Amino acid sequence: xxxxxxxxxxxxxxxxxxxxxxxxxxxxxxxxxxxxxxxxxxxxxxxxxxxxxxxxxxxxxxxxxxxxxxxxxxxxxxxxxxxxxxxxxxxxxxxxxxxxxxxxxxxxxxxxxxxxxxxxxxxxxxxxxxxxxxxxxxxxxxxxxxxxxxxxxxxxxxxxxxxxxxxxxxxxxxxxxxxxxxxxxxxxxxxxxxxxxxxxxxxxxxxxxxxxxxxxxxxxxxxxxxxxxxxxxxxxxxxxxxxxxxxxxxxxxxxxxxxxxx
Length: 262
Ligand SMILES: C[S@@+](CC[C@H](N)C(=O)[O-])C[C@H]1O[C@@H](n2cnc3c(N)ncnc32)[C@H](O)[C@@H]1O
Hints:
The protein is of the alpha/beta class. The protein folds into 2 domains: about 5-60, Roll (Vcp-like ATPase, Chain A, domain 2); about 70-260, 3-Layer(aba) Sandwich (Rossmann fold), CATH 3.40.50.150. Helix content is about 30%, strand content about 30%. The chain contains 8 helices and 15 strands. The strands form 4 sheets. Strands 9-8-7-10-11-15-12 form a 7-stranded mixed β-sheet, with helices on both faces. Strands 2-1-6-5 form a 4-stranded antiparallel β-sheet. A two-stranded antiparallel ribbon has the order 3-4. Strand 13 and strand 14 form a beta hairpin. S-adenosylmethionine binds near residues 101, 103, 104 and 107.
């Protein structure tokens, strides 16, 4: 019997279930009432199991599956933008990262994965109902992955918790802001950026981008990049050939990256 605490099970249509394999009969969202430990723990990676009418395949607890199967409340940052943010900010082991707000923890999982087994990840969030979801997603990740950074969560707005933030580190290699009011947040924490460190602002609308831009400049940061990423999926056409799939061409957010150079 598998001793893992969590399992990822994927439906044929692609829907992902991240299940805690507890030894008790309980309701598992999307799968019904079952003893997850008894029914699902014996299933090995790559094997299938029938749960109700659903054929599920067990896969490893990797970031793409955990992200697809995450709990959601606040709007999340997905792979397209998270990949850009983690790479443009150069996030890697040993870094100190400040993130606000945690929301559903979508971006937090990418940050934690990029940090690997070392580094400091500080998250800030004023709304407890959002933090609850974000922290639960991080708990799954921490209990499933080999190694995890040192994570600290602070309740409150980023503007009012600067003192608590500095208790974990006096300086940060990267700061990521996904919140409605960038200007006051930038003014509150820009001084915490280490020399060479970068800040990323996730701005769903253009007015936020403009305010973030001006606030970064007024704090002595140099704008390195601003814009938006467009993603167009391709698929196999029914009559042969590969072409862009039909469907909406969505917008997520405008992104801004600024650096402290002096
Ligand atoms: C869109 S959500 C973040 C989603 C998150 N990036 C994710 O991928 O799941 C924005 C969050 O910022 C929080 N927020 C709003 N104002 C804030 C502030 N001044 N400081 C910190 N967090 C704030 C909100 O409560 C909300 O949960």
